[in-house]
Amino acid sequence: MRGPTLVVSLLLAACPAFALDGATRAQIERGDRSPDVIFVPTPQEVVEDMLRLANVQKGDVLYDLGSGDGRIPVTAAKLYGVRAVGIDIDPDRIREAQENARRNGVEHLVKFRNDDLFEADFRDAPSSPFTCCPT
Predict the structure, then answer these.
(1) Model pLDDT for residues 39-91, shown as the tens digit of each residue
(2) Residue 20: is it exposed, middle or buried by C-beta count within 10 angstroms (0-12/13-18/19+)?
(3) pLDDT digits over 14-33, tens only?
(4) What count of Cα atoms within 13 Å lies in the side-chain half-sphere of residue 58?
(5) What's the half-sphere exposure (Cβ side, CA atoms, 13 Å) at 95?
(6) In angstroms, what is the C-alpha Rg of the chain?
């Protein structure tokens, strides 16, 4: 039996927009920093395939960086009963994600943080093996 695994979901396209522009935490907190890329929802069937590919299991903790409307953390919590944290810089996406979790009855398992994924503090993540791909 395997122990708890930290699963991190981060989907970045090869795009120069991901370069940091020197924004500070103060800019983010004031709302002066906008997302580096537009929000493009991942199709639900792709979300489910990603979670299967990552071998997500009960007891895992999933962090979704750039979580958008929260569909990856919400689906992981709903299908696998895992705890999940979504991080997104856009407060509108955070509100959508929180509503998504409430609608799906998983708000007790899923938390969303309005933060810049490049600046986010992950010290509260469990110290367990990182899963990036199946072995």
Answers:
(1) 888 999 999 999 999 999 999 999 998 999 999 999 999 999 999 999 999 99
(2) exposed
(3) 333 333 444 555 555 566 66
(4) 5
(5) 3
(6) 15
Mean pLDDT of 97-125: 90
Name the H helices within 1-135.
25-30, 44-53, 71-80, 91-103
Q: How far is CA 33 from each of CA 52, 57, 81, 91, 111, rounded to the nearest angstrom?
A: 34, 35, 34, 11, 22
Q: Quote the pTM value.
A: 0.73
Cα–Cα distance between 111 and 101 in angstroms, integer? Answer: 9
Amino acid residing at 103: R
Q: For residues 62 and 85, is the Cβ–Cβ distance under 8 A?
A: yes
**What token pair was written down for 6?**
């930290």
Phi, psi of 75 (to 5 degrees): -65, -40
